[in-house]
């Protein structure tokens, strides 16, 4: 779970790749750097992420069986909400209990 700003969107094959500036990592099981690529396995724009907007994203690490692909994956039904101070407060409160 992290707060990020969408810098760019690019369609590659049947997937969408977003370049994201990681603002605040809240809870993560793998290291995040200040800029990451987040992949969505479709080109329909689901979830709809706008360039320049900030979101609270819950993504997962995806490693294929051959261990040749290691990326951050946001499912089309994944958690992607526009960032608001309320969202930040809710995430920080939940982190105290998890």
UniProtKB/TrEMBL annotation:
Compartment annotation: Secreted
Gene3D superfamilies: 2.40.50.120
UniProt keyword annotation of Secreted present: yes
This protein's UniProt keywords: Disulfide bond, Secreted
Keyword Flavoprotein (UniProt): no
Annotated NTR domain residues: 1-98
Main location: secreted
Pfam families: NTR
One Gene Ontology cellular component: extracellular region
InterPro entries with a match to the protein in the record: Netrin_domain, Netrin_module_non-TIMP, TIMP-like_OB-fold
Protein name: ATL5 protein
Source organism: Eurystomus gularis
Gene name of the record: Adamtsl5
């Amino acid at each position: 779970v992290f707060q990020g700003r969408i810098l760019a969107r690019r369609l590659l094959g049947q997937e969408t790749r977003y370049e994201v500036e990681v603002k605040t990592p809240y809870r993560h099981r793998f290291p995040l750097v200040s800029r990451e690529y987040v992949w969505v396995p479709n080109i329909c724009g689901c979830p709809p992420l706008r360039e320049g907007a900030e979101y609270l994203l819950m993504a997962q690490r995806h490693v294929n069986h051959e261990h040749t692909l290691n990326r951050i994956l946001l499912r089309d039904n994944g958690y992607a909400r526009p960032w608001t101070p309320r969202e930040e407060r809710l995430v920080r409160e939940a982190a105290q209990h998890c």
